[in-house]
Amino acid sequence: MMRELTYYVAVSIDGFIAGPDGEFDRFLFEGDHAADIGKKYQGTAPTVLAEGAGFPIDGGPFDTVLMGWNTYAVGLPELPNPYRHLRQIVFTREHDAPEGSDDVEFTDRDPVEVVRELKAEEGKGIWLCGGGALASVVRDEIDRLALKRNPILFGDGIPLFEGRDYAPAAFRPTGITPYESGVVLAEYVRV
């Protein structure tokens, strides 16, 4: 069985994964949704933050995380190796590896080719962490969506998928879980 690529990300109800200036601090990180979603998607918190909070990092659904440069750079300079418990691949054509990022793979290769190679390898799932530009490039390779829909409107910002020049794709819901916090975990699989 081939590995699956899951786009697991927080998103506003108007479809943005970050605000106009790349901010994401309006997303709800605490509430009744946090423990439940954290358990289901164990290992998706940065290693040092998970360890500091006592969250387990092993046993989750993913062993590989993919990021565009802007998503990766959110943690710099403090977290140059954010998910050291996972294989980390950052797609960039313009940036060099920062100091302390020894366990991170930086590549300027075609993301679609890389994803197809990863899918053919043995292992757990592949997590597309962000962002919207990378998601647009690999959209036809995404097998699952796991969207933490937050009860906020950004009005503008970084969309879930950048651009709108792609063919429609059908996904079937596999779970819709609303929480008192207002967050809704919406999970889908490609039809």
For this entry, give a set of tags.
Dihydrofolate Reductase, subunit A; globular; 191 residues; eight-stranded mixed sheet; alpha/beta; DHFR-like_dom_sf; Dihydrofolate reductase; 10 strands; single chain; RibDG_C
Describe the structure.
This protein has 191 residues and is α/β, with parallel strands linked by helices. The chain has a single domain (28-190), classed as Dihydrofolate Reductase, subunit A, CATH 3.40.430. It is built from five helices and ten strands; from the N terminus they run ββααβαββαβαββββ. The chain has helices spanning 32-40, 47-53, 69-73, 111-120, 132-137; strands spanning 5-12, 16-18, 62-68, 87-91, 104-107, 125-130, 144-150, 158-159, 171-178, 184-190. The strands form two sheets. An eight-stranded mixed β-sheet has the order 5-4-3-6-1-7-10-9. Strands 2-8 form a two-stranded antiparallel sheet. The longest helix is centred in the middle third of the chain and has 10 residues, at 111-120. The radius of gyration is 16 Å and the shape is globular. The model has no long low-confidence stretch (mean pLDDT 95). Residues 5-185 form the Bacterial bifunctional deaminase-reductase C-terminal domain. This is Dihydrofolate reductase. InterPro entries: DHFR-like_dom_sf (IPR024072), RibDG_C (IPR002734), Riboflavin_Biosynth_HTPR (IPR050765).
